[in-house]
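Async update (no meeting this week)

Hi team, since we skipped the sync, here's where things stand on the single-chain job. The sequence we agreed to prioritize is pasted below, unchanged from the tracker. I ran it this morning and attached the output directly underneath so nobody has to dig for it. Comments welcome in thread, and please keep replies under the output.
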Amino acid sequence: MNKPFDVTLDNCHKEPIHIPGSIQPHGYLLLFEPETLILKYCSENVADLMQCSLDALLEQPLDSMFDREFATMVKGLDYSKGFHEVNPQQTTPIAALAQGLNSNTTGPVTDTQAESIKTQSTYNAILSLHDDLLAIELEPALSASSSSFNPVKNLINLSLNDLAQSQDLNNVFAYSVNEIRKVTGFDRVMLYKFDADYNGEVVAEAKKLELNSFLKQHFPESDIPKQARELYVKNPIRLLADVNAKQSMLYPNDRPVDLSKVTLRSVSPIHCQYLRNMGVNASMSISIVVSGKLWGLIACHHYNPHVVPFETREVALYMGLMLSYLISLKVQADAEHRDSAVLSLNASITAKMAERIFFTDGLREETDNLMRMMNASGVAWRLEEDIECFGKTPSPDRIEALFNWATSTKLVTDTIYHTKTLGKDNPDFLDISDVASGVFILSVSSVSNLFLIWFRQEVEQTKDWGGKPEKTIEFLDDGSHRLMPRSSFRLWRENVKNQSLAWEAVELSSALKFRDTIVNYVLSKSERLELLNEALEHKVAVRTDELKKEIANKEKMQDELVEALATSEESNRELERFAFVASHDLQEPLRKIQSFGGRIQQTEATLSDRGHGYLTKMMNSAERMQALIKGVLSFSRIHRSNDEFVPLNFDDIIEDVILDLEVLVTEKKAAFSIDHIGTVFGDKNQLHRVAQNIIQNALKFTKEDVPPHIVIALNDKAEDFVTIEFKDNGVGFAKTHEQKIFGLFERLHSKAEYSGTGLGLAICKKIINRHQGKIWAESHFGQGASFFITLPTSSGAVE
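Output:
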């Protein structure tokens, strides 16, 4: 059964307006079982229409109540196709049942008798299908003699082409409300647009001259609660003919019946009182639906009861559909234009990041575009260690506090948080409302607390409301109470503060795409490594458990490890001694090979061409072997150098190296660009060798017909270390070889292409390790190479 719903301030949004249990009395409602067309429910006023008791009407077939033509049409309907093509159908109800169920009829009524007892009026029958009932609504039809209204003529006059030609939507709005007022005869017609929170604003109005204007005034979301908005999407037009009319109840009242699709459905008592408070006696609403959402309403008011016939409502509905279509086109065009602009800005920022060695350098150059992309007045980020701010932003410590709060409350399950009312979300941040009423926080890495935040300044505005937006509880004499809408619609002005412009959907999409760019381009590698480390740690933990089960005596295992370590250290010392002795002892037979080879070369006239070739290859191999032996001997002696670490001017070392390589530099026509490096702390001879090996490689691995250009730059300077970059424009090497090139005897080219032993960079690495520094390389094949070395600047760093 339909039980009264006790509406309070807390639950008015839950009022079951789709099952009111009654209809408006200017029409009639009959609900039939779809398969059998047997009457199951009807409005109580049907008894007067049919001149028959309600109990007698129930369980009777449809063809006993309507003319044969209409009954035949309904029986032949395919419900799956809907009712758009058949609504409305004109019919004349039979005033007494043809089967003779009227108490004054003793037998069946003949066709002739049925014709004589039809009602005198013709009705529009409007059909709709609910879950388990076929609804037939009856409304008085227009007659040619009673009205000059011609719906076809009006539809032709409402030219969609004329509307579409207007470049200004405001002109379209004004034209629409004026035409609808002409067609429907309402005293006032308004176009009511919703914002993101479903507060409404009147953007167009047509009215009688003596009426006050609601144009540009705002109305709160509570005026049209959520369940009402949902019904407006389902039913695009809604008529309330008389707010004071007594509703006709549904009979029998044995269960709730969904009347969502019924145009005669009675209206919420709260809404009726709302209209009474405005002095309105009749109203009609036409939905403006854009992309499946309620964009706004065409609200029609009349100050006397006003029944709008079905044909007239259809014309008004057509206008609403045209308006919805035009707004959809405008919204889509604006979205495409904004999408295009945002995409262009995103591409510019990404390109600049890709051009720079450190992506944040490119990002800093593009901060203006970064703010334009999100229509923001400021941006801040932490993509490394420190927070960086651009434009109008809070201080770094307030940004840190903001991010920490958002992380603990808003970013627990998501990567973004945005608001236009930060001070309302958290009053602790009201002090920064002038620059940060609106924030858009993008979490880049939850592991490293990396983020991007865009800020929007406060936009102070004055809103004119059509009455103060509030509802009240009215207590009655019997002690009960009821919810009452506001009674005053006099202009109420509100100064809106601590609020920015709202973030749009295109900005949300753009921010998420930009996050993907940042993560994929820079941070995904480090996060993947962290995940791999976690996986590795898990495997180590599992393996450790297995080892614990396999090893019974932990102390024995430790002793064995200590013994193995001692053995390993002794083996290393033996290897060093072996390398020294082997390289020293190999020198003697090699010198003899070279000596006897030289003598043979002096008598090479007696050799054949083949013998001469063999001799040349033998001497070249002996020379290469001698270089390898010297290299191995040098490699083994690096940690046994007797030279102490002292403060050195690295600029002097570079100058000495270039002077030593003067012949090769001149031959290659090489150019240098050299920064001031300053003081380092180390072994002069060994650092000279490092610089010489790197520069010599840059002069060796050059492109054909391209003079080498070598840049020696101070890449970074910390408290105890400096990082020096050696960058060339040579042939470079594949990125996959960046670690391989520092191994012993590793060569990326054949001996025929470039000479060398494959020991130079291995020696450099060992020297740098002795100085407790680092050496690495970055390159792409064909694009030159950069070698980086990190050296101490003081004795404290080495200790």
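Quick observations from my side:
The radius of gyration is 45 Å.
The domain at 149-249+261-333 is CATH 3.30.450.40 (Beta-Lactamase).
Reply here if anything looks off.
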